[in-house]
UniProtKB/TrEMBL annotation, chain A:
Organism per entry: Carassius auratus (Goldfish)
Subcellular location: Membrane
Annotated protein name in UniProt: RDS/peripherin-like protein xRDS35
Example GO biological process: visual perception
Database matches in PANTHER family: PERIPHERIN-2, TETRASPANIN
Keywords: Membrane, Transmembrane, Transmembrane helix
Annotated family: Belongs to the PRPH2/ROM1 family.
Membrane-topology annotation of the record: Multi-pass membrane protein
Automatic annotation (TrEMBL), chain B:
This protein's GO CC annotations: plasma membrane
PANTHER family, sorted: PERIPHERIN-2, TETRASPANIN
Entry similarity comment: Belongs to the PRPH2/ROM1 family.
Cellular localisation: Membrane
Bilayer disposition of the protein: Multi-pass membrane protein
Organism: Carassius auratus
Protein name: Rod outer segment membrane protein 1a
Amino acid sequence: MVLLKMKFPFQKRVRLAQGLWLLSWVAMFSGAITFTMGAFLKTELHRRSEVMHSMDIHIVPNLLMAVGLASVGINIFAGKVCQDSLDPSRFPRWKTFLPPFFCFSVFLTSLLLVAMILSFALQPSLEESLKIGLKNGIRFYKDTDTPGRCFQKETIDRLQIEFQCCGNTDYRDWFEVQWISNRYLDFTSKEVKDRVRSNVDGRYLLDGVPFSCCNPASPRPCIQYSLRDNSVHYNYEYQTEELNLYSRGCRQALVSYYMGLMNTIGPCVLFDFLLQMAILVSLRYLQTAMEGVIGQEDVEIETDGYILEKGVKETLLETKEKVKKLLQFAQVGDASATTTDAQPEEEKPATA
Amino acid sequence: MVVGKMKLTFQKRVKLAQGLWMLSWFATLGGAVTFALGCFLKTELRRRGEVMDNTDIHCVPNTLMIVGLASMGINYFASRICQDALDPGRFPRWKTFLKPFYGCSVFFTTLMLISVILSYIMKGSLETSLKIGLKNGIRFYKDTDTPGRCFQKQTIDRLQMEFQCCGNSNYRDWFEVQWISNRYLDFSSKEVKDRIKSNVDGRYLIDSVPFSCCNPSSPRPCIQYRITNNTAHYNYEHQTDELNLFIHGCREALVNYYMGLMNAIGAVVLSVFLLQCSVLASVRLLQTSMEAVAGQENVEVDSEGYLLEKGVKETFMEYVDPVLKLLWLNEVTPAEAKAEAGTS
């Protein structure tokens, strides 16, 4: 039972070949764009890698780049094949290449869909990675004299200013860590001693945030210290007033940013996928239609084109058998070496 | 005295026409690039228009845009002329057109050069404009409840963060204005009353700066209040320590930014100018060499091309005379009218 048989008169074959040649150039261009978008996404993820704990999310741009490059190659090959397809003398040399080419291309093209699905599936992993990364960044904010951590302050400050966010989940994350280094604390003062004694670990905790949490859009000069103390500031009630800090957390801001990026890239990748599948289907039709012409005297006859000669199930069984045979040949090669040793022993009892 | 005389064989004329056609398309592209650069510069100047007192500096991008458009037109005509140049039948129809064409082209090409020179001359004006604009911005920083000035705070804050600068000349400019609004001052407190009494105008002046002056690269959490008071902060001496504020003033930062932009644009515009000059010189050579051939039976003879038939001064007077005559005519007519009125 042939799958999706179509009749192809000579004119239709010619049109198919020409259209396919043009389409393969468009798809090559689209593959290059996919590669560029993958490279851009990777650069953006790399820029903020200091606040990310794991690199799991990098699989999405890596897949996009690999498939983009491969699709450029696939489409060049497809263009060459359909250039030769209308010449019955040049077409047969592609015969052996085409079946593995189709399997390989379908596999690679489906990787595009996998990349798109992964970009949504990996969102929790990205969020977790950012949660841990930001937690560490906030914890090591004060360690500007420790090698390896001395840039955490600048990284977190610039991140909060650029993404207009404060802290991990919100500004209260800064209340739970000591973000002012001991170098700048006067341990003889009563206030410092009280604060350090007030918690088990002996950390200087205060209800203040760094300056990078300040919102320029607020009408009031920034209140960043003694946030919970209404009496310190004139005309200020922290429970009711809108604070002049950034209200959202940096984790949420970064996740929104990256999801927005991937949502923009998604439709372009989907378009590339559909284009690529259309090319592969058309190339298959062209190949099968041309195979009907090979060996005939009159090239202008009508032929049948199809996607699969037998049904899907039967084709799968056939390929399974082929692969088994290939494996058996490899096994028989070993087995025949062992049987030649065993045979003289078998013959010996027979002769004896 | 002929200027720039050259012998041109037939082959050379053909090559000149072909080369000129290509060159004129490049020059059209150059004109488009000049126009785009003018638009970009104007957009950048407008973005910071709130901290500029006057718009004098806008004459530079305006000139660039006009010159860019004009240059596209000039080069389009140049390519049409050289397309027709090798055909003696079609070439004469451009004859009357050429003199005004040269006049306009030379004018606009000099304007291109003038715009580059202007961008350096206007630096002083830009600096003064920024000085006044920033002074006003800092003065009205606190007026977030006054209509028309309510965005000054946000503008100045974002400017300082983006250009990594503080104040007009430096951070001390903030010590001389009251940048905290009276709405947020407790007038019953002793400290506020003391500070207000300490100066003639009754302003609340402090040795502090807004948060947007803070430098993220500094290893220490930002010290923005009581900057000159060493005892207020532990392990701090404001005379010797490197402050964790931005050290440049915003005026200097903005002037450097715009001068950098105009230097880059100036380099590109100069190369477009040279391209344009070569196009015009080639059109002139082609025209004069073709005129020597016109009317002859054998078109493939050698001919002479030149840039100017007479000397530079005489040619300049030739072009300027008709314009002056037009102006003098206008002056002569009122005098004649007066004479007529006098006689009648």
